[in-house]
Amino acid sequence: MRLKKWYAIQTYAGSELKVKEDLNERVRKREWDRALERFSVEGEDTFFLVPVEEVITSRSRRGAGMEYRIPYQYDMVAKPNERVQRGDVIARKPPRHVEEAETITEIEPLQRIIVEMTNRNEETYDVPSDKRIRRDIRVGEKIRNGVPLTSDSDERYTVVNRGVIVSREKVRRITSQTDGGKEKKRTIPEKYLGRVRVGQRLEAGELLETEDSIPSRASGLLKVKEYKDKRVVTIQRIEKRRLFPGYVFARMGLD
């Protein structure tokens, strides 16, 4: 049995994969496969290796969002330190059903703005829908304390602590009364709210709020940090880099 040794083939950095393909093709055409050791790399048979290492990086490509705000109403689907692919569901909020028979007594449309403070805690402002929100109040924008949220500078809706706007959405505050006289209040985003109206009777088990899920916008390693009001999920990109740029390796026995 011929003893095989490792050999390094030098080429130009960046052309390693092309050289590897060309060499594999030559070996198969000339039936030299017995002289070389065969490897299986990611399901592919090859006689030549281009070693790579995986490096975790915080850089994002084309500004793709790498951080996700996950309220505690959502259940985590992906686990910490787990690899996820773009489009994979990270977290899911289950649908909400009526627990006991009740009648809707009031529906109040609101505009909800959430400000994340420097300590990553959050403040929530529910502004009546008949109030106009200022045009510069946008998600991702920094905001100072004392800034009014409405165009008419209503003091009731003034930011208390400086931070960053992390959410702005339309919600409805649903007030209902059970058959036993108990009053319930729920605030539900409009896009997840089922068809309801004042005076409507809801039976136990009826759907009140639809399911929602948060997909990953990037591929990488999932990290989770927990705060008072939410979880923050970060997707760290995984890059593959050449261990030996400009070299292709093979193990073969030569006469």
Key attributes of the depicted protein:
single chain; 255 residues; mainly beta; 2 domains; 5-stranded antiparallel sheet; 1 helix; elongated
Write the layout of secondary structure elements.
Elements: E1 5-10, H1 16-29, E2 39-41, E3 44-46, E4 48-49, E5 52-57, E6 67-71, E7 75-76, E8 83-84, E9 89-93, E10 96-97, E11 102-117, E12 122-128, E13 142-143, E14 163-178, E15 183-189, E16 201-202, E17 207-209, E18 212-215, E19 220-226, E20 230-242, E21 247-252
Describe the structure.
- The protein is mainly beta and 255 residues long.
- It has two domains: 5-56 and 240-252, NusG, N-terminal domain (Alpha-Beta Plaits, 2-Layer Sandwich), CATH 3.30.70; 95-210, no CATH class.
- The protein is 5% helix and 47% strand.
- The protein has one helix at residues 16-29, and strands at residues 5-10, 39-41, 44-46, 48-49, 52-57, 67-71, 75-76, 83-84, 89-93, 96-97, 102-117, 122-128, 142-143, 163-178, 183-189, 201-202, 207-209, 212-215, 220-226, 230-242, 247-252.
- A hairpin with a 3-residue loop joins strand 19 (220-226) and strand 20.
- The radius of gyration is 29 Å and the shape is elongated.
- The two termini are 12 Å apart.
- 14% of the residues are buried.
- The mean pLDDT is 91.
